[in-house]
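Quick illustration, no need to memorize.
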Amino acid sequence: MKAYLKNLVELNDNRQSRRFAYFIQFLIVFSVITFSIETLPDLKPKTRVVLNAIEAFCVVIFTFEYLARIYVADNKPKFIFSFFGIVDFLAILPFYLSFGIDLRSLRLLRMFRLFRLFKLVRYNKAMRHFANAMIMAKEQIILFMIITIMLIYFTAVGIYYFENDAQPEHFSSIFSSLWWSIVTLTTVGYGDVYPITVGGRVFTFFMLLIGLGVVAIPTGIISSSLTKAVEPNEEEE
């Protein structure tokens, strides 16, 4: 029985495991679509009943898959606390927490159902390559995030001193200046908050130049890691 389940739930080169993988992929996409439909206003009660039934069916299958993977895992704790183990758990958790309970605070947990989309990574070769690339580049990405946070804070401090006197309603503190800092460094530039002083505009010019690098650097890091992740697989093929 254990060997059969292991052969079924783990993606092997056989017809049964491929069919199971396609079935799970279909359920993931289908459940996300029904989750989106649930948010539509003025749904008929019968429609909600059907959507709830579909959700219950999907959760039963996902729960079976999760428990089966734990059962066949050689190292059960390692799987449970692995990336995919946590994703599988979070994908079914909201259903069991909110089942029979009408607490508004628990509604936020429903968004964890979107973790089902991450389950697709397990079954898609290209997605697995991307996941491996992210793992390979994690140290560079973490370093980049730390530097980016420091830059965001630095720009918030700078624009605060340039614009506080001229626009106290928008730049009343460093904390209120963080929104401008984020949209400037990411080159989004919504235009809801902008400098009006000469010093503030000059400062913003240099921050926009730095922002171009902030956007470009992670792209280079990930593309380089993705190339390294794909090459070994191409050589094996």
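The two ends are 32 Å apart (CA to CA).
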